[in-house]
TrEMBL record:
Residues 1-177 form the FAD-binding PCMH-type domain. This is Glycolate oxidase. Pfam families: FAD-oxidase_C (PF02913), FAD_binding_4 (PF01565). InterPro entries: FAD-bd_oxidored_4_C, FAD-bd_PCMH, FAD-bd_PCMH-like_sf, FAD-bd_PCMH_sub2, FAD-linked_Oxase-like_C, Oxid_FAD_bind_N. Signal peptide: none annotated. Gene3D superfamilies: 3.30.465.10. It comes from Ktedonospora formicarum. The keyword Disulfide bond does not apply.
């Protein structure tokens, strides 16, 4: 727990708090909705915790230009409600949108299944306002999409977990709300056929918004916890489309044809509230008690799932995986979360396999005891020296709490 919690309601107040912390050699850490607090290594408790939730104003919405300017303490769902009145949206769909703040989403580069089409925060942010370690407020980027002047400092702050500065304002490019949306569920007896379908769709003119692969462990969890009726003896591929009615119908028909050729069993089609409920559950499935995020080439997902199955059998563990199949990102939940020696051995084996295929394995959520036994980030790689130099330049005094980020930054 921090020694002091501050809840500013203006950016000037927030900057003053950081300035005082810097002057008195105190450490400070920003907190939004707390939805990503589990992410990262164990760090020392900060002297001051700065709550950003009081910075929650929509400062500007230029609907004709498809841009908006907001304070970083606003939650994503609140922002989406504002934008929907003008028929627009911010194309980010991380878990827990009701509590996740814009600043927290940017700082953790959080995303969801629709990153396949729209990308992550790195693709949506066009400008930021940030409080530096000495309390100075700086701007990066701009307020228009075609802003190409100067260094792209935005990307330094996105995903940095507040180690370089506290994000207090953001400018985004927006997307029109689609005329309609539909999800096609396909069932497969094995992951190879499912991933062949994914690769076939990615290589065609079809443009799905999301491609989510669900294994039997995740299907069981989703059925038991949320009342779904997904098959539990194979794999489900959820294919989401957005667009106008004519284009959507054509793309779904073409997807059905390709899927049949690759041994798919056609499942149901989801619309309206059923569809919204399904994707909400998919996003929440990314947040198990012990969840690893694996990044691989899409072609390596099926082999990884086979290695996962054999490794879990060896160590008497259960696994549940969902994958952003078109992006090569797999979220694997391991159970039980208190079997520390077996979990450590399993994660070490999986990380070795993933690294040997030029991928990464990051433990996104886990019990504190496990963080004491294994590095949640893994090998920081050859770029770590540059990251250290950046931290030294942006925060030489260590005002922003160290230890949570990659390599102990």
């Amino acid at each position: 727990m921090p020694h002091l919690i501050c809840a500013p309601t203006t950016i000037n107040e927030a900057a003053r708090i950081v300035e005082l912390a810097h002057r008195h050699h105190c450490t400070i850490q920003a907190r939004g909705g707390g939805t990503s607090n589990d992410l990262g290594s164990l760090s020392q408790a900060p002297d001051i915790e700065l709550l950003t939730t009081g910075l929650n104003q929509l400062l500007e919405h230029e609907a004709p230009d498809l841009t908006c300017h907001i304070e970083a303490g606003m939650t994503l769902s609140t922002l989406q409600n504002h934008l929907a009145r003008k028929g627009q949206k911010l194309a980010l769909d991380p878990p827990d949108a009701k509590h996740a703040t814009i600043g927290g989403i940017i700082a953790s580069n959080a995303s969801g299944p629709k990153r396949l089409r729209y990308g992550t925060a790195r693709d949506q942010v066009i400008g930021l306002r940030v409080i530096q370690a000495d309390g100075t407020v700086t701007r990066s980027g701009g307020r228009v999409v075609k802003n190409v002047a100067g260094y792209d400092l935005n990307k330094l702050y996105i995903g940095s977990l507040g180690t370089l500065g506290i994000i207090v304002e953001a400018n985004f490019k927006l997307q029109p709300l689609p005329a309609t949306e539909q999800t096609l569920l396909l069932t497969y007896t094995n992951a190879d056929d499912a991933m062949h379908t994914v690769l076939s769709l990615l290589g065609s003119a079809i443009t799905p918004t999301a491609l989510e692969l669900i294994d039997s462990g995740a299907a069981n969890s989703m059925n038991d916890g949320y009342g779904l009726h997904l098959p539990t003896n194979g794999y489900t591929l959820a294919v989401n489309f957005e667009g106008n009615h004519t284009a959507l119908e054509r793309q779904i028909n073409e997807t059905r044809l390709q899927a049949r050729r690759l041994n798919a069993l056609l499942g149901e089609e989801l619309t309206n509230q059923d569809q919204e409920h399904f994707w909400h559950i998919i996003r929440q499935q990314q947040r198990g008690t012990l969840t690893c995020k694996i990044s691989l080439l899409p072609s390596q997902i099926a082999p990884y799932l086979r290695i996962l199955s054999s490794t879990c059998r060896q160590h008497t563990l259960e696994a549940a995986s969902i994958a952003h199949a078109g992006n090569g990102i797999v979220y694997t939940e391991l159970r039980p979360a208190d079997a520390l020696p077996r979990l450590t051995a399993t994660i070490t084996a999986l990380r070795h396999y993933v690294n040997s295929h030029h991928g990464t394995l990051v433990i996104e959520r886990c019990p504190t005891q496990l963080k004491r036994q294994i590095d949640v980030w893994g090998d920081p790689g050859s770029s770590f020296f540059m990251m250290q130099r950046l931290k030294e330049q942006f925060d030489p005094q260590g005002t922003f709490t160290k230890g949570r980020f990659l390599g102990g930054l």
